[in-house]
TrEMBL record:
Protein name: MarR family transcriptional regulator
Gene3D superfamilies: Winged helix-like DNA-binding domain superfamily/Winged helix DNA-binding domain
Entry keywords, A to Z: DNA-binding, Transcription, Transcription regulation
InterPro entries: ArsR-like_HTH (IPR011991), HTH_MarR-typ (IPR000835), MarR/SlyA-like (IPR039422), WH-like_DNA-bd_sf (IPR036388), WH_DNA-bd_sf (IPR036390)
Length: 140
């Protein structure tokens, strides 16, 4: 009987390769932008449009106090703004500014070369991996 991996096993392997190889890129983003990487993560979560601080905390995987600290910092830098939510005047909506969009684009422009295990794959292996990963991409 062939060795058939479980979806969970494959997922663990895939996330391990990605997560364990991203540190050099994250450090480069931090060095070039002058922002902690957690701030870049917050900016990315604001791309779809204004959201409440509570929604932002949840989507960025932070607790509310950490999200508040991040938004305060980003607001001081002119990268986000807070406005009263017209649907509920007791809460505020956070949105990314044009300067925040530029910062996010700058962060995304930092080179992110493939880690050695990926770079060492043959052309055929790379095509197979690419084709499989394309099947996993969410549809827009």
């Amino acid at each position: 009987m062939p060795d058939t991996p479980t979806p969970d096993e494959v997922w663990r392997l895939l996330t391990h390769v990605v997560i364990e190889s991203r540190d050099p890129w994250r450090r480069a983003v931090t060095d070039r932008t002058g922002l902690p990487f957690s701030r870049i993560r917050v900016l990315k979560r604001l791309r779809p449009g204004p959201i409440t601080l509570k929604e932002l905390a949840y989507s960025a995987g932070m607790d509310a106090p950490a999200a508040t600290v991040a938004v305060n910092d980003l607001e001081e830098r002119g990268l986000v703004v807070r406005e009263i939510d017209p649907r509920n005047r007791r809460q505020k909506l956070v949105s990314i500014t044009e300067e925040g969009e530029r910062m996010l684009a700058f962060a995304k422009s930092v080179p992110d070369p493939a880690p050695p295990p990926i770079a060492e794959l043959s052309g055929s292996e790379l095509r197979t991996l690419r084709d499989l990963l394309r099947k996993l991409e969410p549809e827009d």
